[in-house]
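We emphasize that the prediction below concerns an isolated chain of 458 residues; any contacts that depend on oligomerization or on bound cofactors are therefore not represented. The input was used exactly as deposited, without trimming of termini.
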Amino acid sequence: MNIRDLFIKNRNKNKENTTSNERQGINEQEKVPKISVGLDLGTSKVCALVASPSDYSNSLNILGIGIADSEGLNRGVVINIDRTVKAIQKAIEQAEQQSGISISDITIGIAGDHIEAFPNRGIVGISNANSEVTSKDVARVIEECRNIKLSPDRQILHVIPQEYIIDGQDGFIDPIGINGVRLEAIAHIVTGLTTAIKNIYRCIERINESNNRTTKLRIKDIVLEPIASSYAVLDDDEKEVGVALIDIGGGTTDIAIFSENIIRFTSIIGIAGKQVTDDIRRGLGIIATQAERIKREYGHCYLNGIMHDEMFMIPGVGGRKPIDISKSYLCQIIQPRMEELFEFALSEIRRSGFASSLGAGVVITGGCSLLGGVEDLARDVFGMPVKIGIPSGINCTGLVPEIQNPIYSTAVGLAMYDINNNHKNEAMNFEPIIEEFKEEKPNKKRILQTVKIFFQEL
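Result of the prediction step, given as a token string:
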């Protein structure tokens, strides 16, 4: 019996045996495997993915997936509530039908050129009587890192510790148990526009306000998309020796740089697959849907790598005759845009200060990573090893084998992020980033949980 059948069996059994189980004091929730739901709100598609933890470390059982065309988002930001709501509803309903599970808690990805990141420092005195750093001290110093004046229109998404400093000595990754008087932390702070985050919450509220669902949706976490994707396509060795992840979506290209198993840098570029499609549309004089299809079927971005210059036909517009186009001609439209994208990414990598520390080079994922010649072009631009990142550590049980595709890296990564960060301890219940759109206040319990997870993953 596969994991999906187990869910359905337990769901039906729960309805029949609730009274009996209450008499026996049995917690039915313990009998059903935990699930995680990742919701990728992309410019080109909305994807809902249902998964459960596998028996194997850092792997997932994929139970169901739902996909809907995205017409209400642009560059990762909601620009039309109604259209986004419809796309989310469709994707979630498909995922529920395929998995046989009624979805409630969801982990949502966020991107967009409104995302900003910067370092910040926190300093506290070590409070323990024997002068040893405790987990409470670490929680306090991370809270100090969060204590930063932001403009009213911005919200903290992530606080990622980089290193700790004890009495002026730097380089500590796990300071717990070290003797000292003063503890400092340097953290990578990721922020987003409050309105962009509010609009995501508003879409979920609108779905809950409708009478179409028996279970209400709850946002469990909002996660920066390149951080989520890293869970799906990067392994621990790559993160240790240094790697740059470049996730090329429909509206944005997301960058995350790792070194010594720590996220060191994040960035968002406003050039992505949609711009490539627009170039094809204008260059060939065709409509957007035709341009997208041609990009997927014949797209190549490295002219020197085309060995067989095949021809393909594009339909005429307004009754005009079809036109034969060569693959090399199409490549001459696509390659300049992809070169520009990679040059912007290289500039961001250099700005991070870790360009010389990427022993594993660059990993490219997302829809545009499927373009022919993308690895060769990227190697020319970056001057370092390049590979395509495909979601790994997933068991589809014959249900959705197509999930092993770079276009699903973010959705898979969101589910993995949730399992790794929120399922490690049954008592953990991370609060939403914004609760009823009120100003975020530091939460010591949440910070302490975050510290615990951070050290567990080292």
